[in-house]
Amino acid sequence: MISKRSSVHGQWSSRWVFILAATGSAVGLGNIWRFPYLVGENGGGAFVLVYLICVVLVGVPIMMAEILLGRRGRQSPINTMSILAAEEGLSQYWQLIGWMGVIAGFIILSYYSVIAGWTLAYIFRTGAGAFIGADGGFSKNMFTELVSDPEKLLAWHTIFIVMSVVIVSRGVKGGLEIAVKFLMPALLILLLVMVGYAMSTEKFLEGITYLFVPDFERLADKNFFADILLPALGQAFFSLSIGMGAIMIYGSYLSQKSSITFNCFTIAIADTSVAMLAGIAIFPIVFTYGLEPAGGPGLIFITLPIAFGQMPFGTLFGTLFFILLLFAAWTSAISLLEPAVTWLIENKNMSRIKASTFAGVIAWTLGLVTVLSFNHWAFSFSFAGVDKENGFFDIFDILTSNILLPIGGLLIAIFAVWRMSRKSTAEELGLGDNISYRAWRFSVRYVAPFGVIVIFLNAIGVFKLLGFVEQ
Ligand code: PHE
């Protein structure tokens, strides 16, 4: 029987609004800020190739499972898991997926907001013409100067959290539609302008080769599982917004008639295209201006302003670019808050405004740790063969993307195809028992969990200990 539940938080007005909202959640700093710097830290083309494989084989099937659960439960992820577990006669411990997601959401938002704060700062810097004629050294200094000032970081972080709380407290459905309908395509156009500029730089080909051609020599001193596969898997989860309930809650507002399969492919293609365009725009600039690809989280904030300082109408394009990036971050941030906020509304009887403010305060407070990670509290350690310099920020980032999101996704996959009845999932996906349903089921049953588990075990060296991998 098709579930007759409806969400007390409302429904999307059409399938396209869902696709836009979910794309708004997926496309954000993850594509334009995080993807390029991870590519630079983890060896270029090989990382990109593995990333793409993870998106197709693990990301898309798990995204479908997550949306399916959300739409069937139609509540906050915690309560959705509780209802579905009860319905299928399973343990209430499955709620844990929802709880882990809420925790991951708070941690991600806490640092996401600080990075979004950099974007805010760069709108004004670029707008004021600060980068006209800038070279690599100048741009690097500007960035260092910003992050070494906790007061500034805190101010921008606070503004961004307030912006996110305002939208979530009014209900995500209203504001999102316009934001994503017009601003996403605008961001895409600006990325194309940047790609156009990158094509005019001396080292365009070098940049493209770095991005798309795996160079195994560069990987010689790396551990393939821990240094390439795990970060690529983590990035696939992070970029697609899966494994923590963001897409699940958006799925809970989706009408019963809409095709989950079509929606997921559309979202994944849009998300991946933006990441690739960002890479194509950035790496030629990195090489042309003698910058370090493994420059860490500051990479785009150091490279892109140089381009804006050199190209015609650069100040205008640059300012617009950072404004649009801010919107992209904003539409992601609200989806990070929504799972916790809906739970507070459902279980603690709070109004939306109260719940959003409460959740915002938690994320803001946790964000102080990231604010200090770039200056007073900075410390270095090594992870995945890369020196990480920003202490707790890097720990938060690794803990969420590489650990919590993949575990969340793994549990979602196990729940959807190992524990839930075949009938329920077939019904919810609306595919019947046809070949597409079977392909999905096979990938969520075997490919995705197997991929996550093997990557995890290898990354933590269990196989090595057991003697399965020769060293
Ligand atoms: N996908 C978002 C981005 O790429 C970040 C995000 C992660 C949003 C997890 C929601 C959940 O910027």
Protein topology:
Elements: H1 15-26, H2 29-41, H3 45-73, H4 77-87, H5 96-127, H6 136-147, H7 150-169, H8 172-200, H9 204-212, H10 224-240, H11 246-251, H12 260-288, H13 299-310, H14 314-348, H15 352-373, E1 381-383, E2 386-388, H16 391-419, H17 422-429, H18 435-459, H19 462-466
Antiparallel strand pairs: 1-2
Helix pairs in contact: 1-8, 1-12, 1-14, 2-10, 2-12, 3-4, 3-9, 3-10, 3-12, 3-16, 3-18, 4-5, 5-7, 5-14, 5-15, 5-16, 6-13, 7-14, 7-15, 8-12, 8-14, 9-12, 10-16, 10-18, 12-13, 13-14, 14-15, 15-16, 16-18
The chain binds phenylalanine.
Phenylalanine binds at residues 25-26, 28-31, 108, 238-239, 241, 244, 246, 332, 335-336.
Largest beta-sheet characterization: 2 strands, antiparallel
Q: Spans of 5+ residues with little confidence (pLDDT < 50)?
A: none
Number of distinct helices: 19
Heterogens: phenylalanine
Q: How much helicity do the residues have?
A: over 70%
